[in-house]
Amino acid sequence: MSDITTRQVGIDLQESDDNRAIIDAIREDNPDLTVRRLPGLVKVQCPGRIVVNRETVEDKLGRDWETGEFQLAIVSCAGNFSEWDDDQIIVSWEH
């Protein structure tokens, strides 16, 4: 049985200029993140959880960003959105 801290979570994102900045922000806040680029799609995976911080995304985009915009980038995900508010999104496995 997998431990929650080591089970991989993942998000598949559409490839676009804005989403590249979002991926850079996710990579900055999740040092164990693995990024795999495919034609038109970017797959990000991390053991345990993935954190998306609004402030980091705004720094990378160079503009204000609402976490609700993330819905436009997501193609699919492996895990649960265990937290989603105005400042942070967390994807993890909940038991």
Automatic annotation (TrEMBL):
SUPFAM superfamilies: Monooxygenase (hydroxylase) regulatory protein (SSF56029). The keyword Oxidoreductase applies. One of its GO terms (molecular function) is monooxygenase activity. Keywords: Monooxygenase, Oxidoreductase. The keyword Ligase does not apply. Pfam families: MmoB_DmpM (PF02406). InterPro entries: MOase_MmoB_DmpM, mOase_MmoB_DmpM_sf. Belongs to the TmoD/XamoD family. This is Monooxygenase.
